Amino acid sequence: MITQTDSGPTTLPTLLLSGITKLYSGVAALTDVSLEVARGEVHALLGENGAGKSTLMNVASGIAQPDMGLIAIEGSQVSTLTPTLAAQFGIAVVHQHPAVMPDMTVEENLLVALPPSVFEGGNIYGVATALLADVGLTVHLKDRVESLSVAQKHLLEIAKAFALKPKLLVLDEPTAPLGQASVDLLFARVRSAVLEGTSVVYITHRLAEVRELADRVTVLRDGRVRGTEIVSEITDGELLAMIVGRQLESTFPPKHEGDGAQNLSIEGFSGPGFTDITLQGRRGEIIGIAGVVGNGQSELLRALAGLEQFTGTVTVNGMRLTTKSMVRDVAYMPADRHREGLMMSLTVRENAAVSALSRFSRGLFLSRKQENQTVGDTLDSLAVKARSMDADVSSLSGGNQQKVVMARALLSEPTLLIADEPTQGVDVGARAEIYRILREVSASGIPVIVASSDAKELEGLCDTVIVMSRGHVVDTLVGGAISEERMIHAAVSSTTQSVTAISDTRAASQRALDGDADRRSAVRRFIQGDYAPSALLVAVVLGLGAFVLTQNDRYLNDFNIFSMLMLVSALGFIALGQTIALLIGGIDLSVGPLAGFLVVVGSFFINDDKPFGVVVIGLVVMFVIAMLAGLINGTLIRIGKFTAIAATLTMYIALQGLSFILRDAPDGYIARSATDIITFKVGPLPVAFIILILVTLALEFFLRKRRWGWNLRAVGSNEESARRSGVRVNATMILAYVATSGFTFLGAIMLMAQIGVGDPAQGVSYTLTSITAVVLGGTSLLGGRGTFIGTVLGAVLLVQVLNATTFLGLSQMWQYIFQGVLILAAAVLYSLARARKKRTLA
User: Which residue range or ranges hold the ABC transporter domain (predicted)?
Assistant: First the structure.
């Protein structure tokens, strides 16, 4: 409901939040918070991690509903704000953790998140390319988002926000992973938008950015407003005191003085993205790695952690490290805490303790008391804010999650500590604590290497800084020579050729055409895409068919082709429905019993002695039952909060029981006229199979080119990101289960014609075989990716294998062996492909 306030049109703020209170499990995240954002101003929002900044903006964008308070947008009071309604009001949010769907392409992420009006004119490619260029993002539109770096994902999120031409733009830590060039471009875009009347809420931990960009600033602490000031009228010291509730001493601890013993030597270190890195470190020193983001820094750190192949030597305290010892003894804090740093389904305690479990072991058991004490002390030293150590780590703010990553690194008692962007998304108070702890770790004799895109941070923290450009060390700064200016100058003035460029130059003589690189990229995208398993299945089907034909020339006679394709039709329709369930990250175990139950129901209506009207009523009853089964499954999962397995297994048992209640033995023969219609054929091809192919192609089109398919895959790829992008998650998932049951109904029609009788024992096996067909077709059991074409090809291969054993004179045992081998091969190949891609892209 929307009501108009009485304020005059010239004084209406773009956003007014008044008396906002938000509770989570009875704990106040926000208490009586008010915020007013004027038209055409940049309003900074500051506070420590957990102060309530992101929660307040979730309220302002409709992601979270306040327990108390008022929301008004341009004078219109909104009683219930949703992400969809917020978008209609012109509110766009760049989240601290980008709301992107990793299993979808860059182009699809834009299409699912942006309204069709953005792409008016039909030139989607041109519009999408322009949107990315506007924020300096140079990636291929067909690349999967999971292949992008953290910075690229943020730029994609920023591009989506600016594409909406919003009235209110919320930027939550947008510059944390960005290099200076990207930051400059972002600030220029923000200033341009402000000149056009856009209001901006800017959440950051960097006071320098507040000075550069903001007009006013509001500070939150412990979920309450501590003050709103004009930026030009308040000092940094006063702001820090408001943020942390006390006066802070110098952010950086004193640097190391004197010459400590050498404890680190890296010689001739080369790997993917960097080459010939040589440096030495001494006890008490912190080594920094500077340079424009994407010039080999992260690759170097991953190699030092044993996560990338390398050549050269690394010696720590006189001991040369091997890849195995690096993985075991080096503590690595990755820049992407969600992808590599944390296990989001585990608790805070479990995440912090996982690398140090040997410290808490007592024989074969762990001492929970010692674990709680040690982990608790470490978390307290970092001022981690959580409801308890047993709270899910996903419930913490981004900065507190970063502190948990550091806690795990410290608890592992490493021989070498490597930190990639250790203070990314961390508030000023906690930064000082992290700097102090890094200094103490170094003083204890453990070498510390820090990479940061913040040159000021490296200047204040480090004793030695190497500057990297295109994979090379272009300058080494020591002591008083370390300055922001020197680092930036060395990075931007370098003329070194990139490591990748060198490799490309060496390979250039072997290329016949300039388009080879583009073609290789296209091949790579295909291999890593959804259709590669389908291509492999086609090859296997053709190869198996050719082999069986050499053994038995009756293999391709009309009767056998018809029989196989009828079996494929029944399995294919049921598997198409199963594909929909798996695409959203679910599963439907009830499809087999549902198909069998529908046949049993039909056996009471579709008989030779029944009039046509009764037959139609029977088909309608079967269809209604299927729709109700899907609706119940979806409702149990989304509203009842059942897991997909629990809900559909319950339906499985219920339907199977009902089948035996209706018929305790096969009975009720299906009308011959109905069977003849269902099995009608053109040559050796059943019309049912032709319909299956047409339906599959239509589904594939909608999966790739229409919002229905984008929404399905978005929910399966990342439910929370889909919700933030405006997808109606509950409706999408419930309707997906209804659709699954709808296709099971079509499969039951095929099954009815095949068995010709109401048999309560039939149908159950289709649960396993449908899942097998879907997995063989390349659909992920985790959701978000897959194809309907691959599913049908998987069904074809399964039926072909069963048929081939008969023609080859093999026993039924071989049918199960071949099915098991196919499932295992599909799972292994899929896992290897995903793992290889992750290693390549990390």
Answer: 15-247, 259-495
